[in-house]
Amino acid sequence: MPNQARPGTGEQARQLALGQLREAILRGEMAPAQRLVENELAEQFGVTRASIRAALIELESQGLVERIRNRGSRVRVVTVEEAVAITECRLVLEGLCAAKAAAAVTDAQVTELEDLGTAMRKAVADGEPLTYSELNHELHARIREFSGQATAVELLERLNAQLVRHRFQLALRPGRPQQSLNEHLAMIETIAARDPQAVEAAVRAHLTSVIEALRD
Amino acid sequence: MPNQARPGTGEQARQLALGQLREAILRGEMAPAQRLVENELAEQFGVTRASIRAALIELESQGLVERIRNRGSRVRVVTVEEAVAITECRLVLEGLCAAKAAAAVTDAQVTELEDLGTAMRKAVADGEPLTYSELNHELHARIREFSGQATAVELLERLNAQLVRHRFQLALRPGRPQQSLNEHLAMIETIAARDPQAVEAAVRAHLTSVIEALRD
DNA sequence: CCAAACAAGATTGTCAACAATTTTGTTCGC
DNA sequence: GCGAACAAAATTGTTGACAATCTTGTTTGG
Predict the structure, then answer these.
(1) Is the pLDDT confidence value at B14 over 90?
(2) Which residues from chain A sit within 8 angstroms of residue B95, using beta carbons?
(3) For labeling, which of A193, B76, B129, B202 is most exposed (least CB within 10 Å)?
(4) Is residue B5 included in any domain, yes or no?
(5) DSSP alpha helices (H): ranges in chain A?
(6) What pLDDT was estimated at residue A152?
């Protein structure tokens, strides 16, 4: 069964189309509100229209594309208000995950988080906002992962996918990384201290600050 | 354009299949873990297989159906552990909604909630657990609605759909409605008092109690 | 008698053509 | 010139047939 061994080889057309299209949207290659014509996409990715359709339906229910009956699909544009509302949901869900993680992390996992913290400090000191943004994303992902809360992780990944564009804009804002850094370090410290309530507070403080930054 | 006017008439095949299948699962007509063969469903609902496939893909990403490559679809069974994890997510998200609702409700909306509370009291006094369960669901839905938090509402509705079976079991447990009632009345009171923090605490207390009840 | 290879049946995945709908450009009447 | 009716092009929705895959029951060799 050489199927699920190498993704890309045994991968079926729909899965492939879904993955490629999703990546393209997340990379920002598709302009916001760009029309997604099924025929063009089918040719572009070398699959049939049926596969593209299936992928579009799935991406719609993930909130990445918008579909209107008989009118086609577009890349969904997330307004600032929506981004705020989404981040409010992130705030409570990541708070939940972080609290659970604080109660469950191993010493090795704490070390991993602290290493990430060190790398983030360096990225800010070196003035590399994109590296920092990358590490930022990674830190949040790890904390989610350590929580063991599969349902919340799934919801959060869905929400995060909708915020790619706003994340980019935020990362490149001067002064933003410095403030963000302190909040992240506080999250790491409180997890290292295994203090669920303090972590939840730290996560909430961090994302409240993100919400304020989004509204400019 | 007599299209979106009457749903059911101008409704397209895929939408129709999605609605029917979703309703059937939510009503519990499909046994848990039951196989969902595309051909059978297509004949049953009088649509083509392609429409059924599209519906199944959508239901999968809503967590109601499980699909395995080349092996078909089944009604997803939610274990007790998963139900607990889902309820934990509900806890934080409904807490968010309730807090927002407390800050935004009109007097008319408060009256509506209080009327629901009265009806719930009556249902418990009359010993009608199913009516109570119905009102319970309605109360939660209204509070969500009043929050104006579209993103959270969407997530919560997705989560709630996965819990239908457990909700039923819980409603019929002797003594459960009485305890639940007090918690619900507390939620209504704190919203009426426009106290966001108190509401959030009340919602959390309520759903913590639900989690305890789930674990029996 | 048991295990592995094999073959038949069932089911899902994919494809290309057709039908229905919407959008856009054009013409006609005022 | 302007607006409404109309026609053509583009695009999505649907259909049935075909290919790939998996499951199940049978056979064969040990």
Answers:
(1) no
(2) 92
(3) A193
(4) no
(5) 13-27, 38-45, 49-61, 80-104, 107-125, 129-147, 150-161, 164-171, 176-192, 196-214
(6) 98
Lateral strand order in the sheet of A65-68: A35-36, A72-75, A65-68
Half-sphere exposure of B188 (CA within 13 A, CB side): 25
Cβ of B53 near strand C (distance < 7 A): yes
Checking if the pLDDT of B127 tops 90, the result is yes
Using 50, 70 and 90 to split pLDDT, how confident is the model at B13? confident
Closest residue to B61, CB basis, from A53, A61, A159: A61
Domains of chain B: total: 2
Q: B125 and B194: one domain?
A: yes
Find, in chain B, the residue whose alpha carbon is nearest to that of A78: B151
Which DSSP helix (H) or strand (E) runs through B41? helix B38-45
For residue range A57-68, what is the model confidence (pLDDT) as tens digits?
999 999 999 999
Of A62, A69, A151, the CB nearest to B61: A62
- Identify all chain B residues contacting A93, using CB atoms and an 8 Å cutoff: 89, 92-93
User: pLDDT for A10-66, tens place per residue?
Assistant: 467 888 899 999 999 999 888 888 899 999 999 999 999 999 999 999 999 999 999
- Domain of B18? 13-75
Contact of A196 with chain B, judged by CB distance below 8 Å, is answered with no
Note whether A58 contacts B: Cβ–Cβ < 8 A.
yes
Q: Strand D closer than 7 Å to the CB of A72? A: yes
Both tokens of B28, joined, read: 């519990």
Distance of CA B131 to the CA centre of its chain: 15
Quote the tokens at residue A65: 């594309």
Residues B108 and B167 in one domain: yes
Q: Hey, is B193 helix, strand or coil? A: coil
pLDDT above 80 (res A5): no
- Is A158 in the same domain as A210? yes
Return the pLDDT at B11. Answer: 66
CATH code: domain of residue B161: 1.20.120.530
One domain, residues B59 and B98: no
C1’ C2 / CA A1, Å: 25
Does residue A57 sit in the same domain as residue A147? no
For residue B3, pLDDT beyond 80: no
- Asked, for residue B139, whether it belongs to a domain, the answer is yes
A-B Cβ pairs (cutoff 8 Å, strict)? 64
